[in-house]
Every structure is written in C-alpha cells, then in structure tokens.
C-alpha cells in the first residue's frame, strides 16, 4: 500500500543522507521525496512516499525514528490528510493541438505558464493521481519533458507535526 | 581540547594508530598522562580491542585513527561492534577542512563510509564544538541500544595554535533522542500473567541482558519460577552455564534440548534477543505453539522477523525487576505439575542427545577432539577466564563446551562473524582486567587475520593465552562443503603453507607450544596457564574431519537438526 511519511528532522549536514541511506540499506523503496527547511530553520521537513505492507511500514517508521537526526515523524496516510504535488510539463502545442491542450489544462485547473509558437509549459498541482491522469489525457505523443516535485502532505484538522 | 574532553569523559584507554591527519591529537596525548594510548599494529585491531574492552567492562571503548586508510581499516571493527550493539567511540582524523572534497592525500569520506554501520556520526566543523560533540558521542554510544559512534575531525580543528575557552558539559540533551527506559506497565503485567499460566515455558535470553546489566535479575527470576533458560551466542553468561536450569545455547549449533524446548514451548520470554536467523531457522516454522513475549530496548527489534504477542519496549533491568515484583506479589504461582512434566520432558531430551549428559562425539580415536580441548580449557581455567574467540568451528565448540557462569566473560563476534577478532579482543579484555586470565580460542585460519598483534602483546605485556585449534583447514567452510558440496574443498585448505606457529610466537618473544597427542593435552594446558606472565601460543592439532553438531537443517523448524554425520532428528 502507498504511504506518505512526513519527517521532521535536524536541518544538519548529513541528515538527508542518513534517511536515504536507511532506505537503500534495508531494501525499502522511495517513490518520491521532497525536503526543505521549515519555519524553524533548525528543522527540515521531509516527505516521502513509499510502498509496503503494514509490517514493512512499521519497520520503516521504527528505523526512521531510530535515526538520531529524526525528531518526529508521522504516517499521514493513517489519517485524513491533504497531499499535493506540483508538476511542470513541456508539451508540443502546434496547430489544432493547441486549443485541445488548452481545454485539457482548464479541465484539470492547471495553468499555462510559458508559451512559444510550438509549445506550452503547463503547471499543474494536485494529488499524484490527478497528475497521472493529466499526463494520460495529454498523451505521450505531445509530452517533451515532465518535472514533478514529489509529494508534500499535511494532516487535516488539529493534528500538527511540530516540536 | 579533544584529549581534555576524553579525560573529562573518564576515558582511561584509547586504542589507536597515528597518522598525518591525527598528529595534533597524538601530540596532545604525548603531553598528558591521564588518557593512555595503546598502539596496535593495524587499525582493525584497535577497534576490536576497544570493542572487547567495552564488552568486558560495560564502559565505552575508544579508538583513535587517522584519515584515509586509518579510517577504512577501522571499518570492519566498527561493523563488528554495530552488529553486536557494543558502545564504542571512534575518532578519525580528517584532512584539513579546506581540502575536503578535493581528493586530498589520505582523504576518505569517513562519515559516509561508516554511515550504515554506526549508531550516529559527527563531523566536527568548529573546534569550539569539540566538548559537546564528545559528550554527545559517548552519551549516544552508551544509552538505549548501544552502538558505535564516529567522530571525524579535520586536522585544522585540532590545531594547537588556536585556543578557545573550554568547558566540558555535565549533561547533554538531544531533542531527537530519547532512549527507552521503563517498559509499559500494562504490557509487563500481561507478560507475567502469560508466564505464570504457561505449561511449557522457555526463557530465551540474548546479549541485551548482558549489555543491559540484567544477568542477576534474570537469574533470580528464572530460579524463582523454576523455568528453563537458553542463551543465544551473544547471551552466554547471562545465565550461569553450569546451572541445572540452563539448557545451553539455542539455534543453528544450539543444543538438542534447547532447540527442542523452544519448538515445543507454549510461552517464550525473549529478552534482549533479536530472533536472529541463526537462532530461528525458518521463521514460518518457528515455535508454532508459543505465545511470545519480547522485551527489547530497541523498538525496531520487536516484530522485525518474528511477531511478538506481547511486545515490551524497555531496558531489560527495569523490566526484569518489575516482572519479579509482580511474580512475588501474584496470588498465582506456576502450575507445578505442568512444570514438573515439562522438566521431565527436557531431562529426557538431555539424556537422549544433550551435550552435557554424555559425549556426543567420537572419544575412542587417536586424534585430539576439539570438544575435549575446550573441556580441558574449562577445567584448567576453572571456568573463570575471559574467553575471546574468532569465527568458525572453534567458536561454536567454545560456545557449546565452555560453560560461562558469569556475564561479560565470553567475547566473540556474533552478528558480523569477524575472523581476526579474537586476538585483539583478548588484548582489550586484558587491558580491562590486568590480573585476569584471558584466553583467545582461535583457529589457524582466523589467527592469521590479525596475527601482527602478537607484537602489541609484547609491547604492553599482555599475557594472553592463545588456544589454536589447528585442523589445517577453514573448518566451518569445510564442514559446509562436506554437507552441501560433496566434500569439494574449494579454497578451504592451505596445502602445507601454514607457518610454524611455535617459532612465530617465539619470534615475538612469546612461548610457543605444539600439542599433537591426546594424552599430553591436559599437562600441556596446565603448563601453559602456569606461565602467568607470558603470552603462550598453544598450537593444538585436532581431528580435522570433525564437524560441529547439532546443526539445524536449513529451511526447517528449530527441532530439525543433524546430530552427527549420520543421525538426524
């Protein structure tokens, strides 16, 4: 099952390599990974998505918690949460295609952020599923380049991941 | 500043080897007397010696090496300590800060190389941080589930020309690190309830009981309940080996009675043990009828391979005392008739195939049997020596036949299985207790992996006794080749290339002895241990065809074992 694990860790050199190293060392899979400092500059927030059964996810969270640099973590998929991913996509947009792609962008509530005579750069935000669906709608033939940010997430309601 | 911090941390011995990037530190060592340095002959030996010092005393071992090859040579020893959860701090010199990343002379990314085999690591970027980093390193190494910590220090950070105000912190707090202490009271209560209701209980205790100073408490609890106890390879000595309730070691080369008892148990108290694959055999066939209580200080150990019915995260000493208190105040006592039947069953297993009720190997041949060497060693040392070992058949024979009555006496590389561990480990144990009898049981294969340390023994007058079970082959490899590869001895024989160990020992200034006859074994052994202030290398020629039994059959349950070359359960 796909899980989103959100980690609050020391914003120190080497912290990220410990997290990434743990995954390769123990044979766990990282589907996506994002990391950036938080409002408290001594802390970084790392969000990763991974796939595994309950046993594997339990081991992953336990081992992450064991890392000295990891302050707190939460498996967002355990409760109600909001997940977002940003995608920038460069597509061929010439002739009849141009209007078709524009319509598609509107349907998915994306934005065209750059235009040339023959292509668009589109920005689209949403869950990973939505981004996948958009890619499918546009079709492989017109896609030139795709950049995805990886998943960020936050729990709904009162729950807060902080010190 | 670094050495001052080590002194203030209470470090007595540092095992190490100097080199360019560590020279400022070595100069500071020269100019003081509190922290004593032991110069080894290879950095791997420094880590094993510090590791064994820690195993023997419970203190944190300390290693100092230089950058590059100094650091990489230490890696095997760090991994060894990591796998066995031994507290150790390894300080490695590093090239000057501004050269880092430029492939400078003797530069290597030590923090990166050691990352998967340390509990934590530090790179010091400012000399002012040294006291706090040292304090944190020792704190992290020693608390919770212990483990090695690396401190990498660029040369400019230890420059004697820069001085700073120094203050050693008394306490350290790390917001992201809170090791478990007390176990959950409700879980402990449930565990005691399960134990008291058990009809076929077994206590399965590992190295965590020794590390967590829980041996006495465990012994009291086991005796109070009259339940059988088995120890893992790492746990030997956690419960007295000569006690009636002790079943011997369990697992791949565990005793028949220990493995049978585990398989048939209805309740297992696993404490400070981690259900290693060398213990469980096939996990899906492991102890089919048992409810499992698992006590461990490391939450990640629990339900990692075998799912615990009652998990308890906590320090073993605290959990054991709480269990004992509950047992004492409970209205219920164990089911006496069920426990009596259980013991009768265990005695039957012991009488049938136990290692301690009759010899389970050929005693009528002319050759010296390795098992007999360990038995004689036990007799001559009165079972009270510190015994280190290397890895292979000799290690298993020692684990089976040297019945350790006290914790911290059996020092071996259990998790990583590091050949070459024994001799430097014996040095560390001897440093920990200068008056103790320290024995290194080894083989002619393993001993050659760190043989250079015979020289260190000379320099520091460490009167270690080396018992080399010489079977002229990599015995355990050969055993597997016999059992699984139709005796095709691929690269496990030396083709007459072995050195004359007697002369070799003598060339280092030690005493060498060769024993080839069965009848002279005991006399020679006594002669060896009578030479109290000398290193003695006993090169004992043993039956090279002997295998270690019992041996669990791969992919099967705990009760499926080979009991000899021809007999299986």
From TrEMBL, chain A:
Dimer of large and small chains. CDD domains: ACT_AHAS. The keyword Transferase applies. It comes from Gilvimarinus algae. Keywords: Amino-acid biosynthesis, Branched-chain amino acid biosynthesis, Transferase. Residues 4-78 form the ACT domain. Pathway: Amino-acid biosynthesis; L-valine biosynthesis; L-valine from pyruvate: step 1/4; Amino-acid biosynthesis; L-isoleucine biosynthesis; L-isoleucine from 2-oxobutanoate: step 1/4. It is an enzyme of class 2 (transferase). One of its GO terms (molecular function) is acetolactate synthase activity. NCBIfam families: acolac_sm, PRK11895.1. This is Acetolactate synthase small subunit. Pfam families: ACT_AHAS_ss (PF22629), ALS_ss_C (PF10369). The gene is ilvN. Catalyzes the conversion of 2 pyruvate molecules into acetolactate in the first common step of the biosynthetic pathway of the branched-amino acids such as leucine, isoleucine, and valine. Its EC number is 2.2.1.6. Belongs to the acetolactate synthase small subunit family. It catalyses: 2 pyruvate + H(+) = (2S)-2-acetolactate + CO2.
């Amino acid at each position: 099952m796909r899980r989103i694990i959100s980690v609050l860790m020391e914003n120190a050199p080497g912290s990220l390599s410990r997290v990434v190293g743990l995954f390769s060392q123990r044979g766990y899979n990282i589907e996506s990974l994002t990391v950036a400092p938080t409002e408290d500059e001594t802390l970084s927030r790392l969000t990763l998505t991974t796939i595994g059964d309950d046993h594997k996810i339990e081991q992953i969270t336990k081992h992450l918690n064991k890392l000295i640099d990891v302050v707190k973590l939460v498996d967002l998929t355990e409760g109600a949460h909001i997940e977002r991913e940003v995608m920038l996509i460069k597509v061929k947009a010439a002739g009849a295609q141009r209007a078709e792609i524009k319509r598609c962008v509107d349907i998915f509530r994306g934005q065209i952020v750059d235009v040339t005579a023959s292509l668009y750069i589109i920005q689209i935000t949403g869950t990973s599923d939505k981004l996948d669906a958009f890619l499918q709608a546009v079709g492989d033939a017109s896609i030139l380049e795709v950049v995805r940010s990886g998943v960020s997430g936050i729990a709904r309601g009162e729950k807060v991941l902080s010190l | 500043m670094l050495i001052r911090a080590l002194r203030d941390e209470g470090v007595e011995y540092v095992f190490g080897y100097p080199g360019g990037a560590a020279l400022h530190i070595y100069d500071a060592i020269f100019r003081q007397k509190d922290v004593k340095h032991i110069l080894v002959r290879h950095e791997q030996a420094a880590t094993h010696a510090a590791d064994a010092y820690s195993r023997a005393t419970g203190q944190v071992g300390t290693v100092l090496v230089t950058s590059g090859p100094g650091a990489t040579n230490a890696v095997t020893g760090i991994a060894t300590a990591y796998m066995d959860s031994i507290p150790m701090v390894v300080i490695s010199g590093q090239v000057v800060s501004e050269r880092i990343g430029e492939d400078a002379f003797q530069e290597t990314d030590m923090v990166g190389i050691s990352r998967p085999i340390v509990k934590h690591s530090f790179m010091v970027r400012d000399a002012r941080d040294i006291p706090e980093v040292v304090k944190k390193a020792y704190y992290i190494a020693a608390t919770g589930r212990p483990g090695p910590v690396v401190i990498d220090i660029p040369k400019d950070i230890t420059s004697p020309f820069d001085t700073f105000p120094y203050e050693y912190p008394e306490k350290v707090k790390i917001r992201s690190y809170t090791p478990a202490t007390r176990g959950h009271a409700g879980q402990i209560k449930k565990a005691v309830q399960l134990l008291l209701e058990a009809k076929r209980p077994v206590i399965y205790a590992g190295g965590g009981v020794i590390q967590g100073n829980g041996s006495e408490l465990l012994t009291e609890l086991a005796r109070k309940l009259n339940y059988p106890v088995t120890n893992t390879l790492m746990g030997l000595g956690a419960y007295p080996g000569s006690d009636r309730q002790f079943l011997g070691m369990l697992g791949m080369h565990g005793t028949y009675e220990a493995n049978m008892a585990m398989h048939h148990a209805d309740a297992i108290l696993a404490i400070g043990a981690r259900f290693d694959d060398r213990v469980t055999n096939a996990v899906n066939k492991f102890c089919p009828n048992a409810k499992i209580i698992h006590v461990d200080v490391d939450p990640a150990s629990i339900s990692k391979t075998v799912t615990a019915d009652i998990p308890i995260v906590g320090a073993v000493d605290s959990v054991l005392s709480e269990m004992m208190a509950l047992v004492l105040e409970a209205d219920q006592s164990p089911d006496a008739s069920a426990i009596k039947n259980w013991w009768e069953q265990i005695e039957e297993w012991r009488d049938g195939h136990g290692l301690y009720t009759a010899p389970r190997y050929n005693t009528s041949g002319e050759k010296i049997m390795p098992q007999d060497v360990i038995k004689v060693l036990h007799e001559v040392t009165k079972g009270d020596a510190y015994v280190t070992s290397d890895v292979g058949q000799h290690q298993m024979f020692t684990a089976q036949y040297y019945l350790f009555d006290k914790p911290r006496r059996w020092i071996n590389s259990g998790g990583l299985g590091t050949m070459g561990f024994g001799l430097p480990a014996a040095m560390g144990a001897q440093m920990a207790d200068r008056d103790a009898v320290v024995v290194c049981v080894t083989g002619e294969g393993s001993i050659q992996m760190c043989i250079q340390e015979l020289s260190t023994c000379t320099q520091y007058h460490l009167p270690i006794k080396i018992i080399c079970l010489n079977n002229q082959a990599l015995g355990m490899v050969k055993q597997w080749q016999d059992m699984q590869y139709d005796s095709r001895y691929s690269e496990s024989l030396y083709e007459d290339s072995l050195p004359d160990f007697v002369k070799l020992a003598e060339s280092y200034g030690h005493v060498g002895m060769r024993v080839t006859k069965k009848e002279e074994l005991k006399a020679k052994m006594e002669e060896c241990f009578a030479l109290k202030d000398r290193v003695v290398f006993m090169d004992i020629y043993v039956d090279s065809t002997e295998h270690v039994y019992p041996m669990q059959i791969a992919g099967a349950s705990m009760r499926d074992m080979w009991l000899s070359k021809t007999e299986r359960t």
